[in-house]
Automatic annotation (TrEMBL):
SUPFAM superfamilies: His-Me finger endonucleases
Segments of this protein annotated with the region Disordered: 1-26
Pfam (any one): HNH_3
Name of the protein in its database record: HNH endonuclease signature motif containing protein
Keywords: Endonuclease, Hydrolase, Nuclease
UniProt entry tagged with the keyword Thylakoid: no
Compositional bias per record (Basic and acidic residues), positions renumbered to this chain: 1-14
Protein EC: 3.1.-.-
An example molecular function term from Gene Ontology annotations: hydrolase activity
Record-annotated HNH nuclease domain positions: 42-85
Length: 101
């Protein structure tokens, strides 16, 4: 894939940051998008599905590196919506604490 930039974002391994089209700036935005068979799809889902297969309907993919534009399969983990929300909240608290230092 040519539309990926390898960037060290502080995660265990470098991120593969998408430099192609995204889903925009609104709610649910800032995710990598591409065209596949005439349909617009989320690149990180394609990347994960390629390696692991079907994503069960109630599950979501969480970016362990917290980079929405990262499409590296090993940085993604299948979680429930509740787990994803909890992690997001924990990350927000950690960021706030860091900013307060
Ligand atoms: Zn990443």
């Amino acid at each position: 894939m040519a539309r990926v930039e390898v960037v060290d974002t502080g995660h265990e391994t470098p991120c593969h940051i998408w430099t192609g089209p995204t889903s925009g700036d609104g709610r649910g935005g800032q995710y990598a998008r591409m065209s596949l068979d005439g349909q617009t799809v989320a690149v990180h889902k394609v990347s994960w599905t390629n390696e692991n297969g079907f994503i069960p309907g109630k599950k979501q993919l969480d970016h362990k590196c917290r980079q929405r534009l990262c499409v590296r399969e090993s940085h993604l983990e299948l979680v429930t919506h509740r787990q994803n929300q909890k992690r997001r909240a924990a990350a927000a608290v950690a960021a706030a604490l860091e900013a307060a230092e």
